[in-house]
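Collaborator request, handled under Task 6.
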Amino acid sequence: IMHAHFGMEGYKLIDLKKKLNIPLIVTFYGVDASYCLKQARWIDRYRGLFRFADILIVLCEEVRDRFLKLGCPPDKIRIWDIGINPNEFRYQKRIPGDKVKFLTVARFVEKKGYFILFAAFKKTLDIHKNISLTAVGYGPLKRKILAEIKRLKINNYVELIDTAKIDDFDRLF
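Structure tokens returned to the collaborator:
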């Protein structure tokens, strides 16, 4: 079995799949299921991929619907919900005065909205001092994000954790 991460890589494997005559599974994550679907050349390539891939894994119904509109056979699409199941966490009543902790886990890239998050956190912090924010991720905007945290003077309330340097995620919770 070949498993391609991202549609662009799946497209590149079509000829090898044909040559080896083995199943091809492609998992779509983000840009490959959004931006690429606005590009004529990728739409044509994906239509070929839809013919030859055996299973296409998408992360939500919206992407499934996009693929169906492009002619993807519905029986090839699988939705993989990788979100957190809130039912796995026991509700704990908040005690007035306890610190409220915010957590975000996302790449340090523009589309994840870190600068909007920090501006909103700053406004909240101006009203409620007993809060904190932990941001976990990696990516090219790390330096700019650190600079923004410092510029907003929220560095005593925000912890930035680079996923490349963490091996125990349990400590975050």
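The cover message to the collaborator said: "The chain is about 35% helix and 20% strand. The two ends are 36 Å apart (CA to CA). Please let us know whether this matches your experimental observations."
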